[in-house]
Amino acid sequence: MKKSDLIVIGAVGVIVGILLVCLYVFGGESGKYVQVESNGNIIETLKLDEDIQKEYTFNDETNTLKIENGKATVTNANCPDGICVKHKAIYRKGESIICLPHKLVITIIGDSPTDDEIDAVA
Q: Would you tell me how many other CB atoms lie within 10 Å of the CB of residue 47?
């Protein structure tokens, strides 16, 4: 490798690092509500600023949602892989935790419990 190659690789690395820091710092606004869906049907919408722990059971499939300190996480699930339990806590608008075996989707939404944002391509 030439010296100029190392300079280009280093410059690209610095630019990528700066972009990642910007995405983390300015990555999105905090949501206000947690929407819980099962099989595509909205089960309920909870406030993100109220600490609560709820258990959802559908056909012997159980997931436990915990909202604490403005963040939502799945603390327990009887699904075979447990990926939803390993997922980091979510709090930014648009983030979600999905339990595929149980068809459960937990999503952070914006300022009103009826946020129906439509993504459109112009």
A: 13
Tell me the C-alpha distance between 41 and 26, whole Å: 31
Round the average pLDDT of the chain to a whole number and report it. Answer: 87
108: exposed, middle or buried (C-beta count within 10 Å: 0-12, 13-18, 19+)? buried
The one-letter amino acid code at 4 reads S
* pTM confidence score: 0.71
Task: Please choose, from the candidates 99, 103, 98, the residue with its C-alpha nearest in 3D space to the C-alpha of residue 41.
Answer: 103
Residue/partner pairs of 36-45 with CB below 8 Å, 24 or more apart: 36/65, 36/104, 36/105, 36/106, 37/104, 37/105, 37/106, 37/107, 38/102, 38/103, 38/104, 38/105, 39/103, 40/103, 45/109, 45/113
Place of tokens 């952070």: 108
Residue type, 69: N
